[in-house]
Golgi SNAP receptor complex member 1
Amino acid sequence: KQARQLENELDLKLVSFSKLCTSYSSTREGRRDSSDTTPLLNGSSQDRMFETMAVEIEQLLGKLTGINDKMAEYTNSAGVPSLNAALMHTLQRHRDILQDYTHEFHKTKANFLAIRERENLLGSVRKDIESYKSASGVNNRRTELFLKEHEHLRNSDRLIEETISIAMATKENMTSQRGMLKSIQSKMNTLANRFPAVNSLIQRINLRKRRDSLILGGVIGICTILLLLYAFH
């Protein structure tokens, strides 16, 4: 839950961070047109906002890294089965998300710094600035489309993770019930060995138990298929 909360915060921060970086050049050009005495890039509010958001994202990335490390320590502890595929898949998914967010942050930050350096070099050459604004408008539109598609994919991933969590909880409940049924079956076998007349009754109970298990398994399978169909609809 802590990892998903941090991932949601990072997702929102990175979207705002990317929008700030892509709109930087056009905003700086508008300020130059409005006033020749506008301060240079280092004193702009956008630069301060960039530095603040970069620090916040780095802190969130550090927290998410710590949470992933704690989850890895838990999976390696003595009390956790080492062959729990669903648990390892969940941990690996969170690691992949952290890696994607880290890569996206560094890429966006590098692009912003490159744009800022280029703005400093361009200076007051209006022809080059207008050409850059035109190209930036096209890139902004493409970036918005990519961000929307990225958000849809993140939502699908979250839904799949919730489905996996439900399946893991169901598996744990089924394991607990299986242990109880084995204990009851052992006691019933003991009684059957002592009282042969009870053997036929036990067989009928076992047949009903198998039938209920098949029905329960079918219901769980249908629910899982419906959730997956809804997730990829």
Q: What stands out?
A: Residues 126-194 form the longest helix (69 residues). The radius of gyration is 29 Å. The domain at 1-27+41-139 is CATH 1.20.58 (Methane Monooxygenase Hydroxylase; Chain G, domain 1). Confidence is low (pLDDT under 50) at residues 34-43.
